[in-house]
Amino acid sequence: MSEQTEINFALTGDIVKEAREAAEMTQDELALYLGSSRQTVSTWENRDGEINIRPQLRKKLIDFITAGFCNRFQKTDVSEYKISAPYIKIDYYENYIQSLENGNRFFDFYLNEYPRGFYIAFQVNTKAMENNKKHSLSFLDIAIGKEVKMEEFNKEYEVYTIWIIVLSDKLIFTQLTDHNKKSNEIVCNYLNPSAKVSEQTLNLADVRKIFKVVQRVTTL
After folding, report:
1. Are 141 and 216 in contact (CB under 8 A)?
2. What is the Cα–Cα distance from 174 to 163, expressed in whole angstroms?
């Protein structure tokens, strides 16, 4: 991999708004953080195309986006983005499930497009998703998950995709095969034919966090 360059991307109103909402901040709060005004933030978010910002404020806004919105990332000179995501290893599962705190480990991976959203890397603790196929997950693999807000699940849901689901007492890796919007239930399928349970139904009201798996890193 070539040496990395400085972050270089067009700042648009959509990016600013998405970053602010991902950080759960109001326009007033972002303005206060940047030392600007709510009207300025509102103007940015409603403008089509790239927004022009004075250099010092632009740097502060980029720092906010890359550190608070989507972990820390850098654009390389081969049109990739290197992302440093929190890394939840098996020995940290209990702490994560109880507190939802990301800890202090990080895992680097690459995307070919601007990394919209928040990512966490999870070490796989089960063989339930093993079936020797391309999109399966093996024990000790690293699954890169993009967090999906519950209010956005209907839009993000795709049948047969693999998800990481955080419940009150455990974390599971599963393929979703059905979503009943009326009952708010999802059907989880486990790929390994030797798994103790091949299928289970969960209510989304019991889900604390949910991540769509966007990348698998094998440890073999």
Report:
1. yes
2. 5
Q: Categorize the per-residue pLDDT at 4 as very low, low, confident or very high, splitting at 50, 70 and 90.
A: very low
Q: ∠ CA(50), CA(55), CA(56), 5° rounding?
A: 125
**34 burial class (0-12, 13-18, 19+ CB within 10 angstroms)?**
middle
37-96 pLDDT per residue, tens: 999 999 999 998 888 888 888 888 887 776 555 566 666 777 788 888 889 999 999 999
Nearest to 76 by CA among 108, 105, 118: 108
Distance CA 136, CA 126 (A): 12
- Tell me how far the alpha carbon of residue 195 is from its chain's centroid: 27
Tell which residue, 213, 169, 165, 212, has the closest CA to residue 185: 165
Task: Give 50's DSSP letter.
Answer: B
How many angstroms separate the CA atoms of 169 and 143, rounded?
A: 20
Instruction: Give me the count of residues in the chain.
Output: 220
**Which residue blocks in 116-163 are alpha helix, DSSP H?**
153-156
